[in-house]
Amino acid sequence: MYELGVVYRNIQRADREAADALAKLGSATVHEAMGRVGLMKPYMRPIYAGAQVSGTAVTVLLQPGDNWMLHVAAEQIQPGDIVVAACTTDNTDGFFGDLLATSFQARGARALVIEAGCRDVKTLTEMNFPVWTKAISSKGTVKATLGSVNIPLVCAGALVHPGDVIVADDDGVVVVPAKLARKTLDAANAREANEGEKRAKLASGVLGLDMYSMRGPLEKAGLKYID
Amino acid sequence: MYELGVVYRNIQRADREAADALAKLGSATVHEAMGRVGLMKPYMRPIYAGAQVSGTAVTVLLQPGDNWMLHVAAEQIQPGDIVVAACTTDNTDGFFGDLLATSFQARGARALVIEAGCRDVKTLTEMNFPVWTKAISSKGTVKATLGSVNIPLVCAGALVHPGDVIVADDDGVVVVPAKLARKTLDAANAREANEGEKRAKLASGVLGLDMYSMRGPLEKAGLKYID
Amino acid sequence: MYELGVVYRNIQRADREAADALAKLGSATVHEAMGRVGLMKPYMRPIYAGAQVSGTAVTVLLQPGDNWMLHVAAEQIQPGDIVVAACTTDNTDGFFGDLLATSFQARGARALVIEAGCRDVKTLTEMNFPVWTKAISSKGTVKATLGSVNIPLVCAGALVHPGDVIVADDDGVVVVPAKLARKTLDAANAREANEGEKRAKLASGVLGLDMYSMRGPLEKAGLKYID
Amino acid sequence: MYELGVVYRNIQRADREAADALAKLGSATVHEAMGRVGLMKPYMRPIYAGAQVSGTAVTVLLQPGDNWMLHVAAEQIQPGDIVVAACTTDNTDGFFGDLLATSFQARGARALVIEAGCRDVKTLTEMNFPVWTKAISSKGTVKATLGSVNIPLVCAGALVHPGDVIVADDDGVVVVPAKLARKTLDAANAREANEGEKRAKLASGVLGLDMYSMRGPLEKAGLKYID
Amino acid sequence: MYELGVVYRNIQRADREAADALAKLGSATVHEAMGRVGLMKPYMRPIYAGAQVSGTAVTVLLQPGDNWMLHVAAEQIQPGDIVVAACTTDNTDGFFGDLLATSFQARGARALVIEAGCRDVKTLTEMNFPVWTKAISSKGTVKATLGSVNIPLVCAGALVHPGDVIVADDDGVVVVPAKLARKTLDAANAREANEGEKRAKLASGVLGLDMYSMRGPLEKAGLKYID
Amino acid sequence: MYELGVVYRNIQRADREAADALAKLGSATVHEAMGRVGLMKPYMRPIYAGAQVSGTAVTVLLQPGDNWMLHVAAEQIQPGDIVVAACTTDNTDGFFGDLLATSFQARGARALVIEAGCRDVKTLTEMNFPVWTKAISSKGTVKATLGSVNIPLVCAGALVHPGDVIVADDDGVVVVPAKLARKTLDAANAREANEGEKRAKLASGVLGLDMYSMRGPLEKAGLKYID
């Protein structure tokens, strides 16, 4: 259950080094490294292609059609943070635009992940401030009802605690619990390590069937080849 | 209720200067200037990023799977117009492609807004003819049933009268009633005027909380900070 | 009804020359040339803009959350093929990523069409390996349950037989039955032949109403002009 | 464009007799009688099966997550009215429940049509107060921001003026402009008049092909029968 | 690829006895008996609860907003048939209502399965004529463009040949190829045979874990119990 | 992040009396009593109308197309529990049918809430075993991959801990954290207490505008009445 009308000022951010290093591994590898869990639903899409970031979560709970708490959240941002916003109900309004982005960027935020809507996407693209969102909409919002900042919340089907690591790129958005950041980084690096070798083999024409020794299991499962 | 089988030839277009000047303000600012009304639903998306236009509406009511009335509409286009098309039922066929775009462009149309589907999007992009649409589909259409041209209609949830101003960009599509065009332009310009100053302040690290004097109202609404 | 657990090794591919030549005509023209049938549903979208391909279908039936059969399919790929994958149930997982793409590309595949999900889209874009898909998702898959390769299947509402020609571009994906490839190519070329002339006329301001002699039929259908 | 913060007290309701008589003809027949226009989108569904009503529209424009204006609208209801509510943005909250229904019913309202959400559906069913809605949700709303009452608005894709006739049943919701109510009633009655005879013929095994003399037109259109 | 403008008069219907007997087994059991294939997408829903039918397919390909071919199909119906209709593009119009249902019923049809829309659902319910459909809509249709009758087609993601067995109930719609009808009936009966015994055991408190001997495989897969 | 392959046997269930008493208050009142938070998304719908239950949550994390863990969960059910199941990815298969329901009911479960799919809905209705679900589908599932039982999980956008109270009825599904059950019950009872009086006033024609003293605030907000 969400606590409304509160701002937690002191949150425990994940290990900085791990939080920063996860970006280059990407959401797919990180998701695998966590055992295929922690992913936001695929309707969360970047407003422009190519951005790939990671950072520590500052969370925001919004009310429908009301972006007041994003202003409150700005003050809680520290360099290296990614703001993660959810709404108490499905809403596609443009809660976030270029002015808030200027403020967030000045505070050191790397991105916004918002299960709602965003606007001014052309300017945000020029500012190089990436947003993962459910909708793009010119529709503005009011400032009338309280939500909360830095409470645990559900964003696009994923549970996010303040301070968790967010990894976002063209494939989607993954949440890594703060205390698992270092371990996940190690596991992801390990996965990545032998990808180059695999890629070279596959590029040379070796089949996954042979490289992963799948022929036996497939036969055992009953696969039949028909000429 | 829609009148079927009619073409209104003489429509009252909005003030040309205002209709043209609204483009550079963009759909989000114009939408704010109108008091947050007049927006099409956010499923209307541009076929390519970056287009930003405004113009006067020529409206078209289509029948499902039938683009006959777009040919009829072409004749009614005057330079500076934007064609706005709706369908009597949900339909995602590709009603519009490069040949019709060539004709529309030759007549002086600046864009098409269609609550249905569009095709030949690669060529339309090369032609620099923007389309806001609900779907992209290769599916062609027949020419068998009458709709209407230049009647008031509902497109993506917004009421459009022929001659109204349409403002469309990456954030969406806004409709400005013809008689409010000038007033909306003034209001939008006024909003824009002090945005530069605000942006500079926010970029320097000033918080919206302080710039907009939100701390008092937030406290009054009961917001609690927890350390 | 689908046959499960089988791989057909010898499939009858469409005429190579026709299969290759259809790409440049594009999905919209090919769809028209076939009498407006054979199109996949418009939720199948390319992961990047601009790709335009044709090739012969290798079909794959997948189980939800399980990409085992894509590895099996890799072995059946011949140069000039396009892999067409469907799933026994709606599923948006990322069944396909850069390693499989490396393997498919090494085998000579030109593209993947998958009614499910895809990941590593940034790398796939850099590799110039186009994918038409219903979803983008970091979510990985297991390898535990059999599907089939090279059986007739339904993908995004279209029936695909192994060896059929697939034509895919920014407008969508069309399926041309193998035995109709040559005839469809001729019909599509014929359509294309006089498009240049039509385009020139329209660009000069001639109306479709006159070029297509629509005024009579419109009057007969009861269209009224009101001044 | 919507006017915000206003309540029009004196609206011109459609002819009472026609408004009342349209119910028994049903939305499908009325829709045909109007030439197949004026229908709300099919995502508007009744909360229980079997209700069939007509009445004069009192319109309400709501803000997301805020049902204040429904209370304002209650005062404007006269016996025989149907309240039609839209929201400035997509929102599925439960704006309406059993208390408001008690009030509406006491004022003489026959139904609610709301492009948003509704709750207490079990009680509403027991009260025999029908609601056509886009969503059912326990989510309550606040009372903080103004909308309007009795302005023309777009509800589920249809334009509704205060005083128009609303016809709603299991098939959907149709809007009949006030001034066309009598004429539409006559046209609908005429349609209905010979339906009984048609039904008897079809029930006896006569084919529509013969009853409607379709064989000639079908042959002319090129239909081929293959044995 | 669909053939347009044709009506196949002589189709090979599945074994009558098997086609009739499959109804009482229901779509879920039949679907299992076929190896979990042949199911239409779950957006196909019955217009009223409780109907459970099977029969042989008469197929109809429709054009958007045009129900002409349903009249043509009526003549091809034989007692025990179920009409299966698809549209060349997504369309939710009300193609089918009480008059056509009267005709279909008079010809001996048991149901309609239509990937499009239906209307007059209250009357259809009273007539006890079940329809599985994607949408309910008052929107009527024209009679202007040819489709086909009794060609193989894709309906809601499933391939249907004329004469195949259709099994439909509250859980969905399954297609059984004509030549597999008898074999599927036997397999479904076999499944059903020992369900009573299983149900009795489970009702007495025996766990599926024990009844299906799952504890070993679960342990082997690595499941851990934590107290 | 989800822990996979684990079953927690000892969970802390909410106060029994409170968990049982919340049912009769219903999801809307309980949701209000919690400050309008804790609601599942409105796409979770009951398979039949009229069920109204509450109970303590046993949670299950499923893999797509695989219902193995529902069998594991059955053993963990105690009388008064409601099983809450989520899937690692969007999936509409029929994970649950009459056999599992027989087992769940024998163990004392009151309902299932599943963000996936369900089948055998006619039999479940006859058994009086309610299910809230995202989809109905005949599609069966395999038993091959581990999920977990009694871990905290996100179901339809709401965070659920094992032992939390679930309140479900025709309006939706609300989650009450175990430790807040008693307090929420008190708050909900308090709300309910004066509803009867309010209802009587509204039924007698008193307006909410007067009963809630809204006229002043509306005037202050700027509402204008126009005659």
Topology summary:
Six copies of one chain form a homohexamer.
Chain A: E1 6-8, H1 16-21, H2 26-33, E2 45-46, E3 53-62, H3 68-74, E4 81-87, H4 98-107, E5 111-118, H5 121-127, E6 131-136, E7 148-149, E8 153-155, E9 158-160, E10 165-169, E11 172-176, H6 181-193, H7 195-203, H8 208-211, H9 215-221, E12 224-226
Parallel strand pairs in A: 3-4, 4-5, 5-6
Antiparallel strand pairs in A: 2-6, 3-7, 3-10, 8-9, 10-11
Description:
The structure is a homohexamer of 227-residue chains. By secondary structure, chain A is α/β, with parallel strands linked by helices. Helix content of chain A is 31%, strand content 25%. In chain A, the strands form two sheets. In chain A, strands 2, 3, 4, 5, 6, 7, 10 and 11 form an eight-stranded mixed β-sheet that branches. In chain A, strands 8-9 form a two-stranded antiparallel sheet. In chain A, helix 4 links the parallel strand 4 and strand 5. The radius of gyration of chain A is 20 Å and the shape is elongated. At the A-B interface, strand 1, helix 3, helix 4 and helix 5 of A face helix 2, helix 7, helix 9 and strand 12 of B. Strand 12 of chain E pairs parallel with strand 1 of chain F, so a sheet runs across the interface.
